[in-house]
Amino acid sequence: MRALALAALVALAAGAAACVEVAPFECDRDESCGEGGRCEADGACSFADDSCHGGRRYGEASAPAVAAACVGDQTGAIAGLGAGSDHACARAMDGGLWCWGDNQVGGLGRDDMLLAGAPVRVAAIPRVTAVDGGDDHTCAVADGEVWCWGRGDHGQLGDGLTASRAAPEALPTLTGVEQLAVGDAHACALDRDGAVWCWGDNEARQLGRPGPPQAVSARIVDGLPVADAVAAGGLTTCAIAGATVWCWGDNTAGQLGVGDDDTPNAPVEVPGLAGATALAIGDDHVCARLGDGTVACAGANDRGQLGDGTGDGRATPAVIAGLDGVTAVAALDAATCAIDGAGAVRCWGRGDAGQLGGAADDRADRAAPADAVVLPRPAVALAAGDDHACAQTDDGCVWCWGSDARGQLGSGGGDDGGAVRPALLACW
Q: Which end of the chain is more exposed for a tag (fewer CB within 10 A), N or C?
């Protein structure tokens, strides 16, 4: 009898053990995933799979929420785009942040790769509401704070130091931030009170004041009215305040649009951009979407980036003919793109890397908007780096074109030839 009872207990224990759920496998490094595996930021292993938009699929032993799914499919719909010189980022509706492209100094928020030809998740950062990139560094707004990572040699990470780091960290003392703009090696933030704060390189007074060549911590920009928006690019910064536009920083090509090429010591009002609703700043040109849906530009025009049909630079803004109903504008290093009233993306300026998105063999410069970038659906958002651009279409897909030397198109891995026709990055 005792033997039968013991046998019954053993059988019961065995049955109970069979019902115990096995915890999902968690990795801490690529080697723990086995051959060909990569440890993702969420602690799950992924493996190469060309059928996934990002080229990788989670393993079967991952947490149920991601097991066997393509990496990136859990982020929710894309809420916004941002781009740096040779990288780009997409923020998702759930606040997740994914970046791709150049990572030589940690601009993607990881220290275990030199580039990522497909999106990788940026870990250790709260829900992201805005993102922008500079020359090898990235900043994002999360919970009203600014987080920065990547190159820091000019103080552009705003952490009081001049060291680079791949780990995102919040700027001390700066809170209540609603917007963000990043130039080559400086950044600016707009807080909920309409004040603009800037930090980083100040070589051309792009921080809005003369003085030291850099600021390692955020400083308020004096002399501005209450601002509604801020934009940065190259060594130049601008802000929209009500019906006025104010700019400061590099003006060697007349890009501030005030009629001369002098570098001001403080923000100056730009009468020719009155009523602007959006700004885009390239290496040495500035464009604005005006209230009537047209676009006006000023600055260097050696590659046709002002879109006026000439190669002549301008120190006062000129409206681009034949372009109206514009909903968004983005500036590359020496080119410009805009979304017109029909949702078509039209680009002009430098085209040698395919950054104008024209015909398959067209890498010529273009001095005025012409054929639209070939996209399957109307575009709703734009982001641009030095020589590449990305657009989000109304179905949630992201398409990128131009230089891919550092994987900045995000479609699978760097290609020195780049792509004139847009490559599909993701549909989330």
A: N
Closest CA to 332 of 279, 387, 379: 387
Question: Exposed, middle or buried: residue 13 (CB in 10 Å: 0-12, 13-18, 19+)?
Answer: exposed
Q: Which residues contact 400 (CB under 8 A, 6 or more apart)?
A: 88, 388, 389, 390, 391, 408, 409, 410, 411, 419, 422, 423, 425
Task: Examine the pLDDT at 70 and tell me if it is beyond 90.
Answer: no
* Euclidean distance between CA atoms 72 and 323, whole angstroms: 36
Handedness of CA 216, 221, 222, 226 (dihedral sign): negative
CA atoms within 13 A on the CB side of 166: 17
Q: How many CA atoms lie within 13 A of 26 on its CB side?
A: 5
For the stretch 201-221, pLDDT in tens is 999 999 999 989 999 999 999
Q: How confident is the model at residue 362 (pLDDT cuts 50, 70, 90)?
A: confident
Residue 76 pLDDT class (50, 70, 90 cuts): low
Burial of 19 (0-12, 13-18, 19+ CB in 10 A): exposed
| CA distance linking residue 92 with residue 97, whole number of Å | 6
Q: Which of 54-68, 108-122, 147-161 has the lowest mean pLDDT?
A: 54-68
Q: Confidence band (pLDDT; 50, 70, 90) for 360?
A: low
Q: Which amino acid is at 108?
A: L
Q: CA 334, CA 152: separation in Å to the nearest integer? A: 25
CA distance linking residue 246 with residue 287, whole number of Å: 13
Is there a contact between 28 and 39 (Cβ–Cβ < 8 Å)? yes
In this predicted model, what pLDDT tens digit does every residue of 265-297 receive, in sequence order?
999 999 999 999 999 999 999 999 999 999 999
In angstroms, the CA 374 to CA 52 distance is 22
Cβ neighbourhood burial of 294 (10 Å; 0-12, 13-18, 19+): middle
